[in-house]
User: Fold this.
Amino acid sequence: MAKDEKKKIDWKRTWKNNCYMLGFIWRSAPGVLILTFVSTLLSAVESFLSGTYLLFYAINALQEQRPLTEILITLGCIFGYVLFTSIFTLIVDYYRQLHNPRVEAYIQGLFQKKAVEVELACFERSDFYDTYVRATGEASGRAFTVLNNFADVIWVVVYVVSSSALIASIDPLFLVLALIPLLVTVIVGKRRNRLQYEYRVRRREINRQKDYVQRTFYLTDFSKEMRLTEMWRVMFRRLHSSVRDLKETVRKYGYKMMFFRYLFDIIFCVIVYCGSMILATFKTLVIKDMLVGDCFAVINSITSIAGNLRYVGDVFFKLDENSLYIDDLRSFLEYEIKIPEIEDAPPAPVPETLTLSHLGFTYEGQNTPALYNVSLTVRKGERIAIVGHNGAGKSTLIKLLMRLYDPSEGEILLNGENVKTYRLSSYRALFGCVFQDYRLFATSVAENVLLRGVREDDRARVQDALERSGVAQKVATLSHGMDTAVTKEFDEEGAVFSGGEAQKISIARIFAGEQEIILMDEPTSALDPIAEQEMYRNMFAACEGRTVIFISHRLSAATVADRVYLFEHGRIVEEGTHTELLAQNGKYTDMWHKQADNYTEEVTA
Amino acid sequence: MSAKQEARKPKKERHSAGRVIKNVWYMFGYTFKYTPGYIWVTLVEAVGRAIYHIIGVLFLKYLFDAVENGVEFLTILWYIIAFAAYNALFELFNKWMLEVYLPRADLALHEGMQNELYEKARSLDQSCYDDPTFYNDFIWAIREADSRTARMQVDLSLFLNRIISTFAIFGVLMTMDWIVAVALLVLVTAGVLINLLLNKINYWQSLEMNPINRKLSYIGRIFYLPDHAKELRQREIAAHLRRQYAETTEEKIDCAMRYAKRTFGIALLSHLLSNVLPYSGVTAYLIVRYILDPALSLGDFSASMTATLKLFWMINDMGTYLTKFNEHSLYVEKVRTFLEYEPKITGEERGLEELRSLRLCNVSFSYPFAKDGERVLKGIDLEIRQGEKIAFVGYNGAGKTTLIKLLMRLYDPSEGQILYNGEDIRSYEPNAYRKHIGAVFQDYKVFAATVAENVMGGDYSDADRETVIEALRAASFADKLASIPAGLDAQLTREFSKDGVGLSGGESQKIAIARAFAHPYELIIMDEPSSALDPIAEYELNQSILQNAAEKTVIFISHRLSTTRMADRIYMFDGGQIVECGSHDELIARNGKYAEMWRVQAKNYRGCES
Assistant:
């Protein structure tokens, strides 16, 4: 998410964004928030007491010859506190383990709800998708990063302020020494970060090529081609050139990175550590204004104080990084939905007519419309075939009908009313749809068919649907019948379906539902001719009285339609029944002959 | 169903020390082979760092004794400068190693090992991809081999450093305060042992948590991957999945709760033994001793403190290396199994004459890892002569595609023989044999390389230009090619750049078909060559293929019988057997299964012909 050129940090926004994220934790598991902060506070004090103050106190107390009991009681108190804190911290760790899942589930819940509400275009526009959908969907754990960063702020403030005060009280010069790493970070940190970023980006680019090469050697998809062609030569060449580029990158950046890292190390272990040794021994032995105990305490704690001081800078930088990410998350969660569900809109009525009126649609970022001035009317119970070449706009039409997109021009009317006036969920519930790129879910077969949870009285319905789509036999052979999980994602015994079988399962969804309008986008592409034939017969029988709109390449299916629309370049170029269209002797006729002639010349059987 | 094959993490198991050492030694072989300097550089670093730790302790003892005894400041100054100088030098070496040496050495190791791994991957039998266990290990081997070797090397050097430092510091501490030294050793060791128990319970927990987490991440993914976006907008599936997500979260919390009850006591004990007592307890003891025992110098006290601290985390740290090496060993074995695998599909390197005939004698086949050992092909007999056009037809799952795989020697038959000009194809080296056959599979794959490279199926030079253009024309791709500005040099897929050319299913298929024309194959096999095309494009493509392959032997697989009509001979497959064979007319006349299939398809076209 890091942007190439860092803009000036907007602290107000950073603060607001990080708090926004904390708000999620507060709402889903307030105990996590409170306990984390309390335990951080306790352990910061603990670090100060046992890490710095203890030695300082003990040695000086001894030299000042304080009463032994006082020293022992103080020591006892400190250790008691240490013990208490460490047990408390452990308890908080356990508490967090138990409650963190709630936070994740809460944020995931918000995301999932939104992901279903936004229009499909959000998934199909790659820029929007990459930045908002994918990035935010993957990282419900980001809230904990924010929480930990806040805890770090508390820790750093308590510990650093108290320790700095202590060494400054001995001699402010030590504080100056301890501040050097922070100063250097502020001065050169920006340059180093930019360099680091460039280095990472450069390597990531090259690594992508390398990883691709690797995938071609191990993915089953490529295995046959790798054996039967010599593509491996090309891939080997790419491996070698990536390695060469990477070596070049290391040569270019390696020494610079080494310089920066070395600089910080030298500052710590030579300037701060050895510097404070020299200063402390000089003050103790030559000027003699410093107690041996102070000298000891300073030398033992200066590097840890300096390190934590420097960390202050990092923490704020991290908060800013979170903020950039949270910006994306917020934009997504607050994204204004273009096709909204309006709660008080009337539900969609039983469809009598569905009319497309001068419908036009252009995908975002495209110049040519995918659909252009499409007008047609479908009446209840009709069977409509939509045919045409690949890319003629047929699938886009289906998406518009389902309101996965809204038209750029014209309108869709249900019983004469614009469909936008109806409640979205009730409108979509009118349709049963099989997409060309149908997907099965890794849940049970029955749930895949019903597209919801299974109730006891559903079994007969599912069984019937599976039989009609011709996959019941296969399902019967599975270990748990229709309750078998699909894919081996979660279950070793999960069902693996061939392309044809999976398509039949998705078709069974139509048979199991009672939707008024059935949409099918190339429903039979993976089926063999007999299965296809049977499927169509069953479909028309099961959908008697329902409206069916189907897309098919195979014109044989179009012959049984009440009306056929031939699409070309996003327009309807011919329409009518099969017989009418053949009589027109136009493009449809031409297509028909190319497919049918091989069958029709011969009537031997 | 999933676009990417995700490998499951290998199961954890405990290896014996001997096995771990053997595996580590095996990987050493590779470091020696590709980056011999690696071992020396990391060794020097290990020793240097050990010295750095020991000096750290001894120097503090000297410093505070000197301060307490009021030694001359200048003398102390020289010591400090010497100490600083060593640190500065060591850090310089360390940073050079980390930022300059190791990245380059890693690359050399990567290049060398990946080269070997890929060569091996290429020679693997296709059946290895069907064996889920082997395949899973194979993915890990290839992904992890070199980075594991590198990490192992670094861990080894750190481990060595810990051993040297621990012994040395322990020795120093023994001379100063043996009680602390022994107490520390006992406490931390006890802590480490208890931790082992804790790790075991945590491991059981992770076993139980894995399926729960997998389910959560699966449902999460469903919502943000574009694949399922359309389906999720239908009916109630989204609500159903969200409910499942919430239920699974509760399951996760329940599971965590159960384990929390079991582990809390142990975790507390381990925490006290290995953290609170050795650290705070020993500090308290030393302070009290310092207060009570005037003989203890400040230097001794300080050195004991520092030594205690260092020793404390070093012993703790060493515990983690045991599990690390066990894990390394696990992966190394995967790499070994993979690299030592002997391909079964082999043959002699000898010349092949041009194809005259291809004969299958009683060929049967079952996939090696099929659950029930079901035979996909049963007693296939057929003969194909040079120049013939052959069609394989039949329903889904009748065994047609499997037969093609046997012909290409991706598998060898379980029974029977395939004879090339009368000689068993198993007697030829598989790659030499495959050079005579061009195959277009149903699940063809386009590579993220240039159009020309994809068509050549390998290296391309300008001399091949005409061949490639001709092949693309034969595959009806010429029109599309004209619309691509970069022409033959255009990068396919958007894998690497946004300017890459994305092809539709039908167009990709044409690229795959062009491959078969770019080489002088004597036999061309097409498995459903037009499944992604619309009817007109299909018709044109089939015409074009037949024209361009007029001289060649061609085997077609197709569902669409209108295509297969053009064949000299048709083999009808059913249940892994050839049930009918003959020309189209003969088969129609016989009125068997082929005729039935034909009728079903033709019915709609014929019935409505006006």
